[in-house]
Amino acid sequence: MAEQAITGWRKWMMGIGEQCVFFGRFFRNIFAGGFEWSEFVRQCYEIGYRSMMLVGITTFIMGFVLILQLRPSLVALGAESMLPKTLAVSFIREMGPVITAIICAGKIASSIGAELGSMKVSEQIDAMEVSGANPIQYLVVTRILATTLMVPLLSVIGDVIGLFGGFLALNITDAISFSLYFNKCIGSLDFSDFLPALVKTIFFGFAIGFVGCYKGYHSNKGTESVGIAANSAVVTASLWIFVIDAIAVQITSILFYR
After folding, report:
1. Cα–Cα distance, 180 to 191 (Å, whole number)
2. Quick check: is 171 in a domain?
3. Cα torsion for 189, 195, 197, 198, to the nearest 10°?
4. 110 touches 233 (CB < 8 A)
5. CA–CA separation, 225 vs 144, rounded Å?
6. What percent of the chain has pLDDT over 90?
7. pLDDT of 38-55, one tens digit each?
8. Residue 180 burial (C-beta neighbours within 10 Å; 0-12, 13-18, 19+)
9. Residue 155 and residue 96 in contact, taking contact as beta carbons nearer than 8 Å
10. What is the mean predicted confidence (pLDDT) over 170-180?
11. What is the pTM of this model?
12. Is residue 30 part of a domain?
C-alpha cells in the first residue's frame, strides 16, 4: 500500500514537472521569430466562430430558464422588478463566464487533444521536428493564444445572448419593453462586475488551450491514446476552470466587495 502511494506521488510530481517544462517551451516560443500568423488566425476561426453557435444556444437557454426559476421566488417577496438586475449580476459575474468555459472545455479541449494526439500517434510531430520545423510554435503556441483570445470574446457574446433569453422569458408573463429591460440590466452593473469576469475568462481560455495541447502532445503511442488524451483534456480543463473560478471569486471579494 505504501509503495503504491509512493509510486502514485512520484508519477504526480513527474507530471507536474513535465507540465512546467511544457509551459517553459510554450513561453519561449511566443517570442521566437517567425510567428505563425496564418495558423493563429485559422485557429481563432476554428475555436471562436465554430463554437459561437453552441455557446449562444446554451447561454440563451440558461438565461431563459434562470428567469423562469427566479420569478416565483421574487414575486413572493414582492421584488419582481429586481428580475433584470438579478439576472444581469449573476450572469455577468458568474454564470456566463463559467458556462462558456465549460462548453469550450468540452468542445475545444477535446478537439485539440484528439488532433494533436492523432498527429503524435501518426508521427507527424516527429516528422516536423526532423524536417526542421518547430511543432511547439506552429501547433501549440497558436492554439493556446487562440483560446486565450477567443474564450473571453465568446463569454461576452454569451452574456449578451443570455440576457436576451431572459428578456424573452420575462415577456412570457410580464410586459416589459426591450429598452427598459436592458437599461435595468446595464444600470445594475458596475465596473467591478465586468473586469473580474473578463480577467478570469482569459485564464479559462489559457487553461483550456494549455491542457488540450499538453494532453495531445504527450499522448502515448497507439490509437487508444487519442481517445484517452481527448477525454483527459476535457476532465482536466473542466477541473481547472472550477479551481480558477474559486480563486478568482476569493480575490474579487477581497479587492472589490469588502
Report:
1. 21
2. yes
3. 130
4. yes
5. 21
6. 35
7. 989 999 999 988 899 999
8. exposed
9. yes
10. 82
11. 0.90
12. no
The separation between CA 1 and the C-alpha centre of its own chain, rounded to angstroms, equals 38
Instruction: Indicate whether 14 belongs to any domain.
Output: no
> What's the grid cell of residue 12?
504526480
Nearest CA to 41 out of 114, 152, 143, 156 is that of: 143
> Whose CA is closest to 181, among 156, 162, 200?
162
Amino acid type, 243? V
Chain segment 87-113, per-residue pLDDT in tens: 888 889 888 999 999 999 999 999 998
Domain presence at residue 31: no
CB-facing half-sphere around the CA of 211: CA atoms within 13 A: 25
Domain span at 77: 36-256
Alpha-carbon distance of 102 to 151, in angstroms, equals 10
Cβ–Cβ contacts within 10 Å for residue 103, how many?
20
Provide the number of structural domains found in the chain. 1
Among 48, 148, 65, 57, residue whose Cα is nearest residue 107: 48
For residue 18, what pLDDT is reported? 83
